Amino acid sequence: MRHALAPSGKDPLGKMVIPGGRVTAVKSETNKDHPFATFLRRKFLKIAIVTLVVILLVPVWFVRATSWNKTDHLFFIERSKNKNVVQYDVQLMENNDLREPSPMVVYWVLENGRQEGLNLIQRKYAYGIDSQDKLEKNKFRILLVVLKDREIIVERINGSYQAAVFIGGKYSILKKVYVKSKESLMGVANVLYIDLFGWDIQTNLPIKERIHHSH
After folding, report:
1. Long-range contacts of range 71-74, CB-CB < 8 Å, 24 or more positions apart?
2. CA 164 to chain CA mean position, Å
3. What local confidence, expressed as pLDDT, does residue 57 receive?
4. Are 171 and 178 a contacting pair, CB within 8 Å?
């Protein structure tokens, strides 16, 4: 039984009728992608490629930044959690001036000696640099996330750049910070106390202060 031809030249079943009685299938328009869907797929593909490139390049950039730049070590943070330490350095220009506008850099030194950058959470809520303010040429005021109430002054002292801070009421050179913490049942580290270690600038004697954290 033959179907009557539709006005468009297709039979009611959506097939093209060719003179001579042959019938050929025609791709339904409903199978075509909507232009907006095609756009979304292409956009997602571009984002995925860019994200992959960033993930691959960030470690390379960090190694290059820490190895090529001229730096001076200032101090580091040890933690009771493990043997990985957080290192704080200042970047220098070829003439040994501090690199502006943000001379201080921070990174992990892992137990195996490898260096890694801090992730976003670590920078913002744990060991990152809260602010770097220029006071004068080659002199900056630094605030750390972990020590927001303790102002650190980076300047030349006895011919080299140092991190100066009050320890036990004495203006001192900061060399080490120790963070004692205890993990809660939820896996969150609660800081119990922070020890500051350094050298009294006036007497050149070692000095220490313990800062207790209340919860």
Report:
1. 71/105, 72/160, 72/161, 74/104, 74/154, 74/161, 74/162, 74/163, 74/174
2. 26
3. 41
4. no
